[in-house]
Design goal:
27% helix; 79 residues; 3-stranded antiparallel beta sheet
Length: 79
């Protein structure tokens, strides 16, 4: 029989600008969306670590994140 001892997912997420908004409003919306994402992770008590947060030339944001996978133990993945 096998059991999962630890599980973690690593993602690269691109928070892109919305094309139907002006540039300043789109940049503000991206920052709000990122903050909402982080708040959502905290509210759901998902363990996570943002490895890298990169502002792009167009002011969109790319994050590289390691996070807990479906409530499993993360082991030393987030250290």
């Amino acid at each position: 029989m096998k059991r999962i001892k630890a599980a973690c997912i690593e993602q690269t997420i691109h928070f892109q600008l919305k094309e139907d908004l002006g540039h300043a409003a789109a940049v503000h919306a991206v920052k709000d969306e990122l903050e909402h994402y982080k708040t959502q992770l905290n509210r759901s008590r998902t363990k996570y670590k943002i490895v890298e947060e990169i502002a792009q030339p167009d002011d969109s944001i790319i994050i590289k994140i390691k996070k807990q996978y479906t409530g499993h133990n993360c082991g030393d993945y987030l250290d």
